[in-house]
Amino acid sequence: MNFFEAIKICFKKYATFSGRASRSEFWYFVLFYLICSFIAPIMDYFLFGTMFGMFYWVFYILTLLPYLAVWIRRLHDINRSGWWTIPIGITSMIVVGAIWFIIWGSKKSVTDNNKY
Length: 116
Prior knowledge:
Blueprint: H1 3-12, H2 23-48, H3 54-77, H4 85-91, H5 95-106
């Protein structure tokens, strides 16, 4: 799966929290999310003189559900419950959550049947 296919699939499965997401789908969408989250405030600054203006909030609102959905599908792919997004999301403000995010996002898919 390439960069644009991953983005297309994530927006196609906008709020689909069931199923699985491959590593490439997940990491390409995370890359897209990071790039756009840097570009949107820059556009706001040059066009409106504020860092978190219209572009930032429109981007954030449009990508919040697909981002959560792909993260939950990625957890399902490694045989983890989607409920793990809550403690990881809360602790991601400190290093521990970021480490778990990277480790679990990078794990190989479970090839056997799993609960999800």
